[in-house]
Amino acid sequence: MCGRYTNELEFSQLKLAFEAVDETFRPWTPTFNIAPSAGAGHEQLYVTLGNSGERALRLGRFWFIPAWWNKPLSNLPTLFNARAEELAQKKTWRPALASSRCLVPATGWREFVGNARRKQPYHFQLEQDAGPPGASSPFAFAGLSSAWRSPEGELVESFAIITTAPSEQAARYHDRMPLILSPELYPAWLDRKGDPTACLNQATEQATTRPLRIYPTSTAGNNTRFEDRSVIEPISAERVVAAPGPPAEATSHPTQLNLPLLRPEATKRS
Question: Which DSSP helix (H) or strand (E) runs through 50?
């Protein structure tokens, strides 16, 4: 599962890193505590193919809104993560997998350990990144995007982050992890005419052995409204409120909620 992530680089750095043009509709600033939201004003960056076929940075809501959705957004199920193993089967994801794949730029993500009252966040980065904890270069989650027309006629773009089974290292903290794409897979993933199966399989295989840097951070970041660099800075062992457990067994059942099998025809009848 990936319900909180960080994108701490400047917009100009992201344009260079992803070789993308600017197709955003408002200025964007580095954000350290990105949380899912289907509401306006919470849009975050994603990369897709632009109008002329080049890569483009756009802003979308981090909560997938199917193009056929015709109910209030408050009625949306949990659609900010998409299970890699369900993409080809679920009607919610299948159209986007075929033609609306995207990259979600990030510099890290967080998972939470503990009970409802005492949750300890742990920050994840790629181990290959140089520099101290809290300083990272960008990478990309595999994502799916959507363009939805509101009843008022507004075109709303949104995206979801694809998740996969965790590596042995990540399994101590959660039974899912976001699917990271290596740069050499970007062209195939964004190619709207290509079959994403091989790319998805290769990315999933790479995820099992990708070294990660994981460390505890301040519980201030548990609050989705709290936005500050301190949420990605490491804390001392004395401040840790909950420690991770042993790696999850391969036979354990994922706790990330399965999505309902949404049917466009069912929503139209309501």
Answer: none
* CATH architecture of the region 5-269: Alpha-Beta Complex (3.90)
- DSSP character at residue 217: B
Domain parsing of the chain, residue ranges = 5-269
**Structure confidence at residue 250 (pLDDT):** 45
Beta strands in 70-165 (DSSP E): 81-83, 101-106, 108-114, 119-126, 139-149, 155-164
Query: In the prediction, which pLDDT does 255 show?
Result: 42
Task: Return the H-helix or E-strand segment holding 182.
Answer: none
Which residues participate in catalysis according to the annotation? 2, 111
Rounded CA gap, 122 and 68, in Å?
A: 36
State the Cα–Cα distance between residues 59 and 66, nearest whole angstrom: 16
Total-model pTM: 0.89
**Which is it for the CA torsion 187, 149, 157, 146, positive or negative?**
negative
Half-sphere exposure of 2 (CA within 13 A, CB side): 33
| Position 253 pLDDT exceeds 90 | no
* pLDDT per position as a tens digit, 93-133: 999 999 999 999 999 999 999 988 889 999 999 987 545 55
Contact in structure between 65 and 76 (CB atoms under 8 Å): yes
